[in-house]
Design a protein that fits this description.
globular, 10 strands, 37% helix, 4-stranded antiparallel beta sheet, alpha/beta, single chain, binds magnesium ion, binds adenosine-5'-diphosphate, 19% strand
Length: 261
């Protein structure tokens, strides 16, 4: 059972020591990684996914319960504790959704009696994240962007069921982010989002800040930000509603922002 993962920093791109030398992530933590383009966000995510042990370009080490990753994490894909979702993750399949999820569930669990329930839960989970429900008979390749992202997150959480889920700049448009965070928090996992979405950042427990290839600080979401996040959610909902109206060829007026007061 993984209880903590630890990131041990070493040096930045320019060789200076990393400001934050150690971060301990606990099961249940929801974390955002932030920083400008080129600051090293993907590199950090990759270090985690590769179980870096002073053998990547950063020299970082990732510890599981305080120790280097056991060999079985590498040797046995079924024991790999990490699911990584990137912008380039595609299901690469034109199977119907139901068949695809069933096949995946069969690979991940040895107990076949469980696959049906898993597939149902995955679909139900995905459909809570997207406004446009996924029809089980539709082909994977026909899903919209929002549906695909919702299904990727549900698949990683329920079928892969890894204790650690990494999401690298997975575009969040088209999914109910507040709902997603609420749902994800019901699972005892570590979720790490590379994102600049204020909604997700403010609903995270803390933000890991990167600059020039190194971790420069940790910002724990404070009481003011927590309170403020309610307003950010409202603002974001209003903006989405306006986007929908524009899409439908309607006019906008000054009343659109009234709900914000
Ligand atoms: N600590 C580091 N040491 C050396 N090179 C690094 C380090 N962090 C990032 N890099 C390099 O910097 C470049 C940009 O990093 P990347 O992770 O892609 O940034 P981002 O995802 O934030 O846009 C990459 O070529 C990466 O290999
Ligand atoms: Mg990146």
């Amino acid at each position: 059972m993984i209880e903590t993962i630890t990131i041990l920093g070493v040096h930045s791109r320019s060789g200076t020591p990393e400001a934050v030398q150690r971060i301990d992530l606990k099961m249940g933590d929801v974390v955002s990684i932030v920083g400008p383009t080129g600051s090293g966000k993907t590199t950090l995510i990759n270090d985690i996914e590769l179980f870096a042990d002073n053998n990547t370009q950063t020299g970082r080490r990732i510890l599981f319960n305080g120790e280097s990753a056991p060999l079985e994490y590498r040797d046995d894909p079924a024991r790999n504790p990490i699911a990584l979702i990137t912008q380039h993750t595609t299901f690469l399949s034109d199977l119907p959704v139901l068949d695809f999820l069933t096949a995946h569930a069969r690979i991940r669990t040895l107990d076949c009696s469980q696959t049906e329930g898993m597939v149902e839960r995955t679909l139900a989970f995905a459909n809570q994240l997207t406004g446009e429900p996924v029809v089980p008979t539709s082909k994977m390749t026909e899903l919209s962007g929002g549906q695909t992202r919702a299904l990727l997150i549900a698949d990683a959480t329920i079928i892969c069921n890894t204790p650690i889920v990494l999401l690298d700049e997975v575009e969040n448009a088209g999914i109910h982010r507040t709902r997603a965070l609420e749902l994800l928090r019901q699972y005892q996992k570590i979720f790490i989002f590379v994102t600049h979405d204020p909604r997700i950042a403010l609903l995270s427990d803390y933000r890991i800040v990167l600059q020039g290839g190194s971790i420069t600080k940790i910002l724990t979401t404070n009481a003011e930000e927590r309170q403020f996040s309610v307003k950010v959610t409202k603002l974001d909902d209003l903006l989405s509603a306006m986007r929908d109206k524009i899409r439908l060829g309607e006019r906008l007026n000054t009343h659109e922002l009234e709900g914000l007061a």
